[in-house]
Amino acid sequence: MRHLTLSILTAATLAASGIGSSALAADPVKLRVGWSVAPAQLTPLILDTGVTRHHGKSYTLEPQRHAGSSVGLQAMAAGECDIVPMIFTTLGPAVLNAGMSDLRIIADEVRDGVDGHATSEYIVHKDSAIQKVADLKGKTVAVNAIGGGQDIYMRVMLRKSGLDTPRDYSVVETNFPNMLPMLSDKKADMVVGVIPFLMNPQFRATGRTLFKQVEVMGPTDALFLTARADFLQKNRAAVVDFMEDRLRAQRWYTDPANKEKATEIIANFLKMPPQQLGWLFSKADYYRHPDGLPDPDSIQASLGALKEFGFLKGDIDVKKHMDISLIQEAAARLK
To answer: Which domain holds residue 134?
Structure first.
């Protein structure tokens, strides 16, 4: 009888304080979220802002670093990662080749060339005789991955000048940090420059820009977050809370009032001198939509180019693979 009375009193106390039994029993959902390059991707930096509200309550964040979106896709397919950043070159094969028709685009990360913001650049040696795209005939071009985003945009631009590979030029692969040495040693006649590597003063001293990505297809959606429909259905509340915290952190980083502290956080993370990061969260940086909304038309156009060059065998209706209701709900909370 005494135990029963205590149980009733305990339940009444919890009810009065707004804590239900389900809240006591439920542990925060562990969200395993992929990333590859910071600070373009803010995932590993979100908690450093001190502005998140739901971490440790409805969810806990486990950032997972992957070499690229294709590696992240493999982790998702194996059930080892829940939310993965992708580019269009990964999304297309995932849906058509890997049978992941339940893949959903849920939020944006960065875009290229929007409103005068940073764009990837295609760079030749400053002493090169190459003055226009047509001069690349018979030359060698370095990209980070054949069939990747920068490769596809390069092919579109060169085709506009009547050049196709392998008939007119050669393509070799090298990772972004090696682009400058490839150009300096003249092992490639043109390389791709992306942030933050493009901000190396030696890159500007060695090369000159032949064309920019934004000139090829206009502003493009470079990176967006994806998750599987079943995971979203089971963990919607926690994901919305994460999206709210993510937006809150993004707005903190991009607020000029926080420039000094934001630069300090990222400099410590990258182990770089703060004075080399003056471009952060400015027009010299990539564009971030303030509400985290992806651009379906840009992604659709990029997938069309992927199919045109034979890297994708079918058509994908991007809007059928989007669920932006979560990021919209999160953004509405911050209004």
So the answer is: 120-212
- Is there a single domain that holds both residue 235 and residue 104? yes
Same domain, 129 and 185: yes
Q: What is the pTM of this model?
A: 0.85
Residues 13 and 55 placed together within one structural domain of the fold: yes
Burial class (CB in 10 A: 0-12, 13-18, 19+), 187: middle
Q: What's the CA gap between 237 and 325, in Å, rounded?
A: 12
- The values of phi and psi at residue 54, to 5°, are -110, -10
H or E element that contains 64: strand 59-65
Q: What is the pLDDT of residues 205-246, one digit of tens each?
A: 999 999 999 999 999 999 999 999 999 999 999 999 999 999
Q: What single DSSP character describes residue 68?
A: S
Q: What is the DSSP string of 182-202?
A: HHHTTS-SEEEE-TTGGG-HH
Does residue 107 share a domain with residue 140? no
**Is there a single domain that holds both residue 289 and residue 328?**
yes
Q: Are residues 8 and 94 in the same domain?
A: yes
DSSP 117-151: ----EEEEETT-S--SGGGGTT-EEEESSTTSHHH
